[in-house]
Amino acid sequence: MTYIRETCGCCDCEKHCGALDIVFVIDSSESVGMTNFTLEKNFVINTINRMGSMASDPTSPTGTRVGVVQFSHEGTFEAIRLDDPSIDSMSSFKTAVKNLQWIAGGTFTPSALKFAYDNLIRDSKRARANVSVVVVTDGRFDPRDDDSKLRYLCNDPNVVVNAIGVGDMFDKEHDSETLVSIACDNKNRITEMKRYSDLVADNFIQKMETVLCPDPVIKCPDLPCKTELDVAPCVGRPVELVFLLDGSERLGMENFGHARHFVQMVANALTMARNRNDQNGARLALTEFGNENENQVAFLLTHDQKAITSGLSGLHYLDASSAVGPAIFKAIDEILGKGPTRKTRRGAEVSFVFITDGVTNITNLDKAASAMASEHIFSTVIATGSDVDEEALTKLVMGDQTAIFKSQTFSDVLQPSFFDRFIRWVC
């Protein structure tokens, strides 16, 4: 989108990649780990975000279609199909990817590649479409699987395979020989990295954008840029959005006021659930954090605009030190709940949004991040200023740099360009 703005000076321009079918094959085995599997899903979403407009009709001869196969041991493969009629927009694709659950079994990579071709590509590929497959794996697979299937995609000369090898959760490096076979002996189509967090690094996403869509066509309307969202956000699925607001002395009273106003703007912009059990729309919650024992909940998960407004107006600035780790545990226990006391809706997408000046005590932050991953929580950070703790912010978003929204001042987050980008991200 940066390229589009620089070319046309307008955020409403569209990028077109022609007739393009992309299939991601991602490892969902036990050795990957839940946090890394979440990073794989974020990699898929962030990459497709760069691909421009998707085909509104899966049978259309033009436009981009995307499929995903997640694999573990035999019989556990799951797919988002290229020709799925319900995948007709970025929003619907994003929801489908986020709904994929970590399988945590064995690793049948060769069979997964055969499954991807037989079930997603062979009978549904379009005559004029370029077909690209992106395989993310640690390179190892169960010896009971048939290794000859590693080259299964190579049997079709019209399919381009890109293999990404990543070290696993046990810090074991990927198997390079396996990657060579997957990529049909084309070493230019192989990327090797040590950590799954490298998948979502902005420079790598840009690289994948160029690999998958090397010659984009940018189309700009003969109209001024719009400042309003085209569609009502967070529609068609349950979204639980929990704000964790920094009440530290470093933040300052004025910025604290801007942050509260930002949350109110979010509540006004989203399509809220109609009641506590509605399986569509958003519900919000907010907790303010200071030092380790100083947290206050402004309002629990609610769809009620009056409760949100009242909670925000009654929220007092703590003017304390900052310790985000305890706030995360408190939010999980008191706002989300666990087991029979779980307060989120069935199948809801749960997101934590941290609003901070970028500096916080990192005690127990690793454990807190692991707790978010185990609860299937997506995290986003809004941080201001240039003096921020990059390591802490990276841990809060579990390595996904694209989930960090930065601005110079808190007043900037209230501007339409920043605000609309945030709304599109969380929805």
Structure description:
The chain has 427 residues and is an alpha/beta fold. The chain has two domains: 14-219, 3-Layer(aba) Sandwich (Rossmann fold), CATH 3.40.50; 239-426, Rossmann fold, CATH 3.40.50.410. It is built from twelve helices and 14 strands. It has helices at residues 2-8, 34-49, 90-98, 109-121, 176-182, 202-212, 253-269, 305-313, 324-336, 365-374, 390-396, 416-426; strands at 14-16, 20-27, 64-71, 78-80, 130-137, 159-166, 190-193, 217-219, 238-246, 281-289, 295-302, 349-356, 377-384, 404-407. A six-stranded mixed β-sheet has the order 4-3-2-5-6-7, sandwiched between helices. A six-stranded mixed β-sheet has the order 11-10-9-12-13-14, sandwiched between helices. Helix 7 links the parallel strand 9 and strand 10. The longest helix has 17 residues, at 253-269. The protein is globular and about 65 Å long. Keywords: Collagen, Signal. Collagen VI acts as a cell-binding protein.
